[in-house]
C-alpha cells in the first residue's frame, strides 16, 4: 500500500494554497476544512459539495486517516483506555484516553485527556523507560499526531479537551512536526483545544525548549527531572550528559520569563536511585528556584528492567518532605496500571511477541 501524505496537518492557509495550486478558489479550502474537522469525513467521496474531479484528485494524492486503530484496552480499575494504532508503514504507536475530574468545590467538570505519542520509540534511552529501551525508529508526522486525537474522539464518542504529550517519544526532538500539529490542534476551525489545556513533556531537550518558547503560546510544560543533581540524573537519563542541569536550568528560567503557568517537574520515585530522603530537599531547592510544582510518580515496573518501586511509606515520606518545604506537590499513581498504561509498554509487548 502506498504511503500517502495526510490532509489532517493542513491549516486553512495551507489548504487554500494547495487548492489554489490545483486551480480552485479560496472558498473550497473552507469547504474542505469543514469536511475534515466538522463532519470528520473519512473518505473524499463524502465531500458532496466539492467537484467530483477535485475529490478524485485529492483521493489519489492524500489520505484522511494516516493510521488505523488495531487494539483498544480498557482498564478494569477505571475508565482509562489505551489504544494501539498502526501507521501506513506498519509501525505502531500507543495513546491513552484518561477521564479526569478537574476543578474544586462546586466547579467540578469532567475533562477527557489524551496522552499522545510523538515518535516511534525514542532516541533518549532513559534507563527506566520502555520507549527508551526500544531505541528510535522515526518521528511521527504532524498528521499522525493529530490522527491519534481523531481516533480517540471516535473511540470515546466525546471531545478530547486536554492533551498531554507523554506517550512514546520525546516531543521536543520532533519539534517541527510538533509545532505544525499544534497549529491545527489550537485552530478553532479544527480541534480547537486551547494552549492552556496542552502539556508538553520533555526530558530536557534544551534547543527544543528554546524553539517552543519562541513559538510563544501559553502551553504548559512538564519536565521529566527524575534527579535534582547531575550525579543522580545522569545515572538514569543519558540525555543529562548532553544537556546537564547547568544548561537545562537557564533554559527553564528563560521559559519562565515568557510563561504564566508554573512548570511541573515529573519525578519518578525509584528505589535506591532518587527516592532517598536526602534527595527531597535538593529537589525542593530546585523547584523553589524555578517556581515549579512537583508531580511524584512511583515507578511503574517495566518487564526486563531492574528498577524497583519504593514502598508506599517511602513515597509518602518523600512527598511529605516536599510539602514541609513548601513545594506544591501531587503524587500520581498511574491509572490503568493493569493495561500497562505507562509510557511505551503496550507496544513493547506486541513488538516482542512478533
Ligand atoms: N519523552 C518525554 C515524554 C514522554 S515520557 C519525557 O520524557 O518527558 C512521559 C513520562 O513517563 C515521563 O515523565 C517519563 O519519565 C515517564 N515514564 C517513563 N517510564 C516510566 C515508568 N516505567 N514508570 C513511570 N513513569 C515513566
Ligand atoms: Fe524518551 Fe521520555 Fe522515555 Fe526518556 S522517558 S526514553 S525521553 S520517552
How does this model look, in words?
This protein is α/β, with parallel strands linked by helices and 354 residues long. The chain is built from 13 helices and 12 strands. It has 2 domains: 50 residues, DNA polymerase, domain 1; 287 residues, TIM Barrel, CATH 3.20.20. A hairpin with a 6-residue loop joins strand 3 and strand 4. The protein is elongated, with a radius of gyration of 21 Å. The model has no long low-confidence stretch (mean pLDDT 92). Iron/sulfur cluster (SF4) binds next to helix 4. The site of iron/sulfur cluster has 12 residues, from helix 4.
Instruction: Report the strand count.
Output: 12
Nearest-integer average pLDDT: 92
User: What characterizes the major β-sheet?
Assistant: 10 strands, mixed
The total tally of domains equals: 2
CATH topology of the largest domain: TIM Barrel
Taken as a percent bin, the fraction of beta residues is 15-25%
Overall 3D shape: elongated
User: Which CATH top level class of the largest domain fits?
Assistant: Alpha Beta
* Bound heterogens, unique: S-adenosyl-L-homocysteine, iron/sulfur cluster
Q: Any idea what the CATH architecture of the largest domain is?
A: Alpha-Beta Barrel
Strand order of the largest sheet: 1-2-3-4-7-8-9-10-11-12
Which stretches of 5+ consecutive residues score pLDDT under 50? none
Helix content: 25-40%
* Strand and helix order: HHHEEEEEHEHEHEHEHHHEHEHEH
